[in-house]
Write a structure and sequence with these properties.
- The structure is a single chain.
- The protein is of the alpha+beta class and 440 residues long.
- It has two domains: 98 residues, Immunoglobulins (Immunoglobulin-like, Sandwich); 282 residues, ABC transporter involved in vitamin B12 uptake, BtuC, CATH 1.10.3470.
- The strands form four sheets. Strands 5-4-7-8 form a four-stranded antiparallel β-sheet, with no helix packed on it. Strands 6-1-9 form a three-stranded mixed β-sheet.
- It is globular, with a radius of gyration of 23 Å.
């Protein structure tokens, strides 16, 4: 009998994989032609050249020339940094030395590590690579008050994005006990779908980002509900263990990540709307209009989710299932309906988080995987299974990441957040808002 059940579970999982794969092919560009073309054209090397001004704010350095040399020493491409300090070059597959022409740096500006210029990069299968050229001294002699305030604002923005993505992860864990490693791909799926609707266009129609975002929320929510119905609900009914479900989620994470790479290609891309904006000088800090709107939307959505959990009938049912599933079911709550709604809402929030994340950074095939570790840090810090814990834990993680750049190199800022996660787990394993549980 156990063998028959296992065979049925495996068959259901494979049917789920096939269904979601076909849906992904339709939604993510209707075919792999763009990816193949990208691989034939080569890959992209990019980066941003930033320095701190007198107020401690990070600003772009424009007009600096970068050159790419192949293994024979021949120059194959060159580019100049834009006003915001960004630069990119498209080159064929291979190994290149990326040289920053130090003679084109502004007076008084120098490389922090001149011995690492040029930087060597290797491009394979049309992938994109970043080349880092930090400017200035390794250690700042002083830190101004404006610098700290600017970093706090940046940390709040990052924390709100992490929270938007992480609340669904926490609610899914609270109601099902599943640690869903594929949640990061829901974030990527939302960002990539927004790019296709806004920048590339589907069936020749390109939408403005605002209506495209509503479509992304609907698509991601529907995909989450379908995913639960086809894969996770049959596994729950068959009594599959949480360890088995965890392994399946890891497999889906890898699978979806490389499906997106195959269709979307490895190049970093940007949304068409709201990319070039002049920052507002608000006295103690600077903020682009899109970042202010992003933060307002995030706060409004997160407060709305919190109020819905507290005041609505379905929100109370979600909290009841999270507290004690068996007791909730015995009182007449339709547990499966609650879990389905959690998957729909959690995936929709992840898709919205992907759009907002894509507004602040370039969109690429592994952006969700990169933010997944930060989501886990925020959820674990706040307390697994709690919506409020995910919110406040994510904000703390965002603040810690940005403020840590005062004492450690910017390239290592995410490491500090993960170290903080380890310390919290050692001191308070249940997180800040979690409840201590007795075992035995």
């Amino acid at each position: 009998m156990g063998g028959v059940q296992l065979t049925t579970i495996v068959a259901r999982v494979w049917r789920g994989v096939a269904t979601v794969f076909l849906v992904s092919l339709v939604l993510l560009g209707l075919g792999p032609a763009d990816s193949v073309a990208a691989q034939e054209d080569g890959g992209e090397v990019s980066g941003s050249l930033l320095q701190r001004n007198d107020d401690g704010e990070r600003v772009g350095v424009a007009g600096v020339i970068f050159r790419a040399f192949d293994e024979s020493g021949a120059e194959v491409s060159s580019t100049t940094t834009a006003e915001d300090g960004s630069w990119s070059m498209t080159v064929p597959e291979g190994t290149y030395d990326i040289l920053l022409d130090e003679q084109t740096l502004p007076e008084g500006v120098s490389l922090r590590n001149p011995d690492k210029n040029p930087a060597q990069v290797t491009l394979i299968d049309g992938a994109s690579k970043s080349a880092l050229f930090p400017l200035g001294e390794a250690a700042a002699s002083s830190v101004g008050g404006n610098t700290v305030i600017q970093l706090i604002v940046d940390g709040l923005k990052l924390g709100l994005i992490i929270a938007m993505c992480a609340i669904g992860l926490s609610l899914i864990y609270g109601t099902t006990g599943l640690t869903n490693f594929a949640h990061g791909e829901a974030v990527t799926f939302g960002a990539v779908t927004a790019y296709l609707l806004n920048s590339t266009g589907v069936f020749g129609v390109r939408l403005h980002l605002i209506p495209a975002t509503f479509i992304v929320i609907a698509i991601c929510g529907g995909a989450g509900g379908l995913f639960n119905r086809v894969v996770w609900r049959p596994m729950r009914r068959r009594g599959a263990s949480l360890v088995a479900a965890l392994v399946v989620s890891i497999g889906f994470s890898i699978f979806f990540r490389y499906v997106i790479l195959f269709i979307f290609s490895g190049r970093a891309k940007r949304l068409r709307d709201y990319q070039i904006q002049e920052q507002w000088d608000l006295g103690l800090f600077r903020l682009a209009p899109k970042d202010l709107v992003l933060m307002i939307i995030s706060v409004a959505v997160l407060v709305g989710v919190a109020l819905a959990l507290q005041l609505t009938r379905m929100g109370k049912a979600m909290r009841a299932v999270s507290d004690n599933r068996d007791l909730a079911e015995s009182t007449g709550i339709d547990v499966e309906r609650v879990i389905s709604l959690v998957w729909i809402c959690g995936s929709a929030l992840a898709g919205l988080g992907g759009v907002l994340f894509g507004l602040t950074e370039s969109i690429n095939w592994e952006m969700g995987f990169r933010i997944l570790l930060l989501m886990f840090a925020g959820v674990t810090l706040g307390g697994l299974g709690t919506a409020y814990g995910a919110l406040f834990g994510s904000i703390i993680v965002g603040l810690f990441i940005q403020l840590s750049t005062l004492v450690i190199p910017t390239d290592m800022k995410n490491v500090g957040a993960l170290l903080m996660l380890i310390v919290i787990l050692l001191i308070r394993p249940q997180g800040l808002f979690g409840r201590r549980e007795r075992i035995g």
